[in-house]
Amino acid sequence: MQKICTLLIITTLLFSCKNEKEKIETTVNVKYEQKNSDTTNLLQHKKDSLYRKRLHSLAYTYLTQNDSLKFRKTNKKVIELSKKQYDSTLLSNAYWDLGYFFEKAVKIDSSYFYYLQAQKIFNLQGNAIKEGKVLQSIAFIQSNAKDYRGSEISTIKAIELFDNKKDTDIDLYRSYNNLGSVTNALKEHDRALKYYNKAQEYYKKLKPKSKINTALVNNIANVYRDKEDYNSAIKNYKKVLAVDSLYEKKTLFYAKVLDNYAYTKLKLKDTANVEQQLLQSLKIRDSLNDISGLAVSHFNLAEFYILKKDTSKALDNAKKAEEYSLKTKNNKRLLQAYDLLTSIDPINASSYAHKYIVLNDSLIAEERLLQDKFTRIKYETDEVLEEKEVLEEQKQLLIYFVIGALLLAFAVFVIGSQYIKNQKLRFEQEQQETNLETFNLMLDQKGKLAKAKQEEQIRISQELHDGVLGSLTGIGLILKATNKRADQEAIDERLDLIKQLQETAEEIRTISHTLSAASSKKMQNFTNSIIELLHNTGKASNIKTSFTFDNKIDWDHLNAEIKINLYRMIQEGVQNCVKYSKAENILLDLSMKNSNLSVILSDDGVGFNLQKKKRGIGLKNIFSRANKINAKVNIDSTLGNGTKIHISIPLDKKDTFNT
Questions:
Q1: In this structure, how many other beta carbons lie within 10 angstroms of the beta carbon of residue 310?
Q2: How far is residue 361's CA from residue 342's CA, in Å, rounded to a whole number?
Q3: Distance between alpha carbon 353 and the CA centroid of its chain, in Å?
Q4: What's the alpha-carbon Rg for the chain, to the nearest Å?
Q5: Which of 577, 109, 169 is nearest to 367 (CA)?
Q6: Rounded mean pLDDT, 345-374
Q7: CA angle, 591 as apex, 585 and 592 as ends, to 5°?
Q8: With the C-alpha atoms ordered 572, 575, 576, 581, is the resulting torsion angle positive or negative?
Q9: Cα separation, 617 vs 630, whole angstroms
Q10: Helix 439-483 to helix 349-433 angle, to the nearest 10 degrees?
């Protein structure tokens, strides 16, 4: 009778729970269908910020309801509109959602890519909390991909962002828990224990009334087991198993801890009750259809029977461990099963050994490939951001330059217009006062007016000329005064000023070249341009120049990027000769040697000591441009024996000539 009553009570509770669950599911489905039915109307609304936010909310609903097709479609629309309207906040959240979507779909590289996009935007916005949460997600997928060092780095960065922030105890708990997991995987057991203890501190802040975090204590016990401190491991497993109602509240977890406890006792060669405990764990997992757990239980039972020298039972359990590992695609456990079967099944040992080697090699290759993808995605993302920053800086400089020029032109126009208006009014007043004069006098007056305008224009021109010239003369006098000082400080000041002027000139020239599409894409008459450069140099400096090149080669079909950078390198080298070498002759030779484009620029000047000479801006520019076209630069110079610059461009690494 008592059993019947108990059964009725349980049935009633289950029925009421089922009704409650159905009510909750109905409410969720109604909300979902309501949002779903609003999709068409929403897409017709005005494309403002409120619209984008509602569209993002709809996409998030699809994500939580596992509606992949509608989520992808709506999320794509959110990303397009966010980019179009420069809404970085919504864009970062859309990338975050997409990263989570691919993480659930086990497309790790895509998940990593979109998480990284979101993290970069949060970083630029200074949103430390959200950046830390995304880094935490990145760390988890890196850990799953066995990129433990990468996961450790990402987690530490997340902790730095969470530290000293409000309401981040749960995030710090998860981060330190993950650090414990990855460092244990790296076999750094002492660090793992340190991190797990730190995680316990934050857990106590979250739940001060809770006596024990069973999952954390189980993790700590696992570290001790992996560290082969089996007594400490058993002590912690007992703490977990002693928790009241653990079996009723967390049945599957109870089976896991019980299995860990029995297996650890087995490692100490303590077989008391081990078989019973392993079988009890197996029974619970089987009743709950825990396929992954069954693979572990059968593997541990196989090891127990090996210790008991019961080969038949050991082989049977090892094969079941293999079977369940294949079902769950648990490659780590499958490798262990193959290894165990190799030792207890001598007939098929070679077959299992071969399977082990093939699987192990494929897993290593897959892990390396995924880790390489992570590295490449991060590098490409950083590279794109750097390019954007450079372009943004150039854009800002151009905007400032244009605004300054427009303001100056406007100021000149306003001042000139006002001045002319004032002059016109003055003369008009004079004309009104003399309107009783004769027609000839009026004509004379008009002539005076025209003459006055002309004189005023000449005066303005002279003032502008003399003012600008006076300013330049003043700069010259200051430089001359500095030039009379021969101390090192004066020399450094002059050099610094010259370098600043050169850098400013280079910046203006760079902007000018950027604006000129023809200059950046093609340079016609390449050899003629070099001839003209050397001719002008010789004429200005009285240095004899000589230029030899192979006439059989169509130099004008040289790749545009190579032509521009090569011309600038030659120009820089010639300018250095004029400035420093005190040379009488400059020789330039272009030729093809051993499938390389060879450029030799030499002079018979004073030379310099390569060991003592610091690399100036000119030489840095030469080497910088050489890197752009994959060229090698070699400088040969000694005191008193001139300087030779040899530039070599390999043809097998670049399409040197346009077809």
A1: 14
A2: 17
A3: 42
A4: 40
A5: 109
A6: 71
A7: 155
A8: positive
A9: 20
A10: 140
Distance CA 547, CA 545 (A): 7
**Residues 543, 578 contacting (CB under 8 angstroms):** yes
Q: Is 223 exposed, middle or buried (0-12, 13-18, 19+ CB in 10 A)?
A: buried
Instruction: Give the whole-angstrom CA distance, residue 57 versus residue 53.
Output: 6
Cα 571 vs. chain centroid, distance in angstroms? 36
- CB proximity list for 158: less than 8 A, separation 6 or greater: 132, 133, 135, 136, 139, 171, 175
Burial group, residue 176, by CB count within 10 angstroms (0-12, 13-18, 19+): buried
Q: Which residues, in sequence order, are CB contacts of 272 under 8 Å at separation 6+? A: 265
What secondary structure letter does DSSP report for 346? G
Instruction: Give the pLDDT confidence score for residue 535 in this predicted structure.
Output: 86
Could you give phi then psi for residue 656, rounded to 5 degrees? -70, -40
Q: With contact defined as beta carbons under 8 Å apart, do 293 and 255 qualify?
A: yes
Q: Which long-range contacts (CB under 8 A, 24 or more apart) does 478-487 make?
A: none
Q: What is the pLDDT of residue 360?
A: 74
Structure tokens at 487: 């101390």
Element (H, E) at 549: strand 544-549
Tokens of 318: 């090892």
* pLDDT 10s digits, 246-259: 999 899 999 999 99
- Beta pairing partners, 350: none
pLDDT tens digits, 483-535:
666 677 777 666 766 755 665 565 565 555 544 444 444 445 788 888 988 88
Q: Which structure tokens are listed for 491?
A: 């020399």
The amino acid occupying position 411 is A
Q: How far apart are the first and last CA of the chain?
A: 97
Tell the residue number behind the tokens 């998940």, with chain if given: 111
Please provide the size of the chain in residues.
Answer: 659
Q: Please answer whether residues 390 and 398 qualify as being in contact, where contact means their C-beta atoms are separated by less than 8 angstroms.
A: no
Q: Is the pTM of this model over 0.85?
A: no
* Residue 577 DSSP code: I
Whether 108 contacts 144, CB under 8 Å? yes
Integer Cα distance of 457 and 452 in angstroms:
9
Q: Is 642 in a helix, a strand, or coil? A: coil
Q: Give the 3-state secondary structure of residue 145.
A: coil
As given in the structure block, the two tokens for residue 245 are 């109602």
CA distance 159 to 201: 14
Q: Is 74 exposed, middle or buried (0-12, 13-18, 19+ CB in 10 A)?
A: buried
CB within 8 A of 58, min separation 6: which ones?
A: 35, 38, 39, 42, 74
Read off the tokens for 565. 């950078």
